[in-house]
């Protein structure tokens, strides 16, 4: 079997249910979910040994993002989506654990610290873009109900995880120098 099909050579691609231009909003949304999945692979590979719990969570998130990409690509009228509310709840639990583990912050921080934390911040921003692009197709009735809550929590997860990676490795977060107290 060849990996190339030549079916996309004229700017079209196949959703599950119909052909669309490669510039289609759904293609942009699930393509960004796929991009995020790749950046998560980079972030997981850069994690130090004392973050094996985060590495395991990232693997689960990668599977969930693959599910979400398939859901977003499906326009057949399907209603039994692969992504479930359990994924959102699991992310919320991890966010709460990491938020309480890292030192309290009162102002904005800059992305960075350790390489792994910086990679997590890249994941955070790509997750936000995936959320925006998914929101653009949200009026479509062929959308998993958990897609937007999941992507929203996912960016929060990456923020909390980045802070924990720095904390566990005794690297302080980088305070935004011109910031004011925003977290009370």
From TrEMBL:
**Domain of life (superkingdom):** Bacteria
Q: What is its EC number?
A: 2.5.1.17
> SUPFAM superfamilies annotated for this entry?
Cobalamin adenosyltransferase-like
Q: Which GO terms describe its biological process?
A: cobalamin biosynthetic process
What GO molecular function annotation could you give as one example from this UniProt entry? Answer: corrinoid adenosyltransferase activity
Q: Which NCBIfam families match?
A: PduO_Nterm
Q: Which family does it belong to?
A: Belongs to the Cob(I)alamin adenosyltransferase family.
Protein name per Swiss-Prot or TrEMBL: Corrinoid adenosyltransferase
Q: Which organism is it from?
A: Alkalicoccus luteus
Source taxonomy lineage? Answer: Bacteria, Bacillati, Bacillota, Bacilli, Bacillales
């Amino acid at each position: 079997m060849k990996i190339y099909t030549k079916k996309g050579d004229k700017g079209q691609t196949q959703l599950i249910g119909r052909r669309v231009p490669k510039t289609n909003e759904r293609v942009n949304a699930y393509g960004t979910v796929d991009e995020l999945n790749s950046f998560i692979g980079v972030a997981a590979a850069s994690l130090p040994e004392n973050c094996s719990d985060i590495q395991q969570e990232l693997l689960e998130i990668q599977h969930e993002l693959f599910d979400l990409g398939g859901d977003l690509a499906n326009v057949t009228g399907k209603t039994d989506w692969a992504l479930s509310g359990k994924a959102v709840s699991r992310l919320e639990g991890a966010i709460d654990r990491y938020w309480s583990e890292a030192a309290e912050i009162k102002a904005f921080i800059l992305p960075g610290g350790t390489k792994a934390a910086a990679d997590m911040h890249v994941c955070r921003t790509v997750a936000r873009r995936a959320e925006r692009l998914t929101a653009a197709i949200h009026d479509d009735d062929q959308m998993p109900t958990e897609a937007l809550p999941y992507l929203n929590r996912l960016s929060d997860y990456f923020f909390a995880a980045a802070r924990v990676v720095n904390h566990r490795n005794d690297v302080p977060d980088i305070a935004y120098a011109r910031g004011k107290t925003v977290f009370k």
